[in-house]
Design a protein that fits this description.
Largest sheet: none
Number of helices: 5
Order of helices and strands: HHHHH
Radius of gyration: 28 Å
Number of domains: 2
Shape: elongated
Distance between the termini: 61 Å
Length: 116
Amino acid sequence: MSLDIPTSWQALSDKEPSQNDPVTRAVIFAINNMLIDLMAAMSHKDWLSRRQRQKQGIERAHAQGKYRGKQAGHERHKKVVYYRNVKKLSIHETAQATGYSDSQVCRIQQLYTLIN
């Protein structure tokens, strides 16, 4: 059932005597299914075009130097290195203390060991 399709309400309504006919009910259900499929296809096409436009906008901003993406939190990174190297916490304990995932703690640790 869809709010945008009036025939979907008619299919479930028993008020009209002409709808008691099984052929009429079958036609209404077929129309409903076709309209719902059409709406789903249009929605998917709209989603794809919005996604493509976003990608183009991001690429254009990269080219103009306006979009740099999410920047690393260097203070939190320093905490990870401190907890791992000085306090000797485990990866999981470090992740809980800093709010990162275990895998992110490993990435940060690897990044800072490559730098030093």
